[in-house]
Here is the input.
Amino acid sequence: MGNKFDELVAVMRRLRAPGGCPWDREQTHLSLAQYLLEEAYETFDAIHSSVESGKYDSLKEELGDLLLQIVFHAEIAEERGDFTAEEIAGDAAEKLIRRHPHVFGEAKLESSRDVLENWDTLKANERLASGRPQRRTESMLDEVPVHFPALLEAMKLSKKAAKTGFDWKRAEDVLEKIEEETGEIRQALGRNSRSAIEEEIGDLLFAIVNLARHLEVEPETALKRANRKFRQRFRHIERKLQENGQSTEDASLEEMERLWQSAKNASD
Here is the structure.
């Protein structure tokens, strides 16, 4: 592992060196940020497709692309004299040891919940002891980055609030809230108010995220799975129509619904 990782670092260093690749030499932390996000999402998708298919080649490839982005940023940082790839790895290892005192120390933590609560406490203590300027916040919710994807932001916000006791007691209570929000969408539709409809749909989505949290379902994963299922079933419709010399433009809604149900029955 060490030799291969060192080889990757050496290749990136060569690309960034004089006489290397013009594009690689022009990149900065900021210009690469979008690629890091894209590779993270592609890795996320590869995880689920690999688990479903039982074939992990795509996951290996996407993890490599994600690792490449980290090495790229590390090389830029080293050129600036900020930090190195070795320091990144060393700091990460030290952090894991600090935050697992029940493994590397004498702490007794019995459940995953205990581990997570202790992790948050240790993280907060580390932030105070770091000596770094602390960002001023007016609310504990300010700790959740506003640039997170909406589903992730909603989950993080609701988790933060729940820790104070501001939460529904049961999943059934959240279901009642979802029914309430659905009714408010109907009212907004009756008023034909676009702004009200958008607001109420947002409230409904937020309530659904909270239901997922109560049921210990990761909403991004659930929605991604639903998206993949929709892709597969719609492709079935397209294939069957093509076999009959038709296109989706030619077919009636009833025909497409029948093919959708056949795809659904085949996957059940």
In short: Residues 221-267 form one domain. The radius of gyration is 24 Å. The chain has three domains: 2-98, 140-217, 221-267.
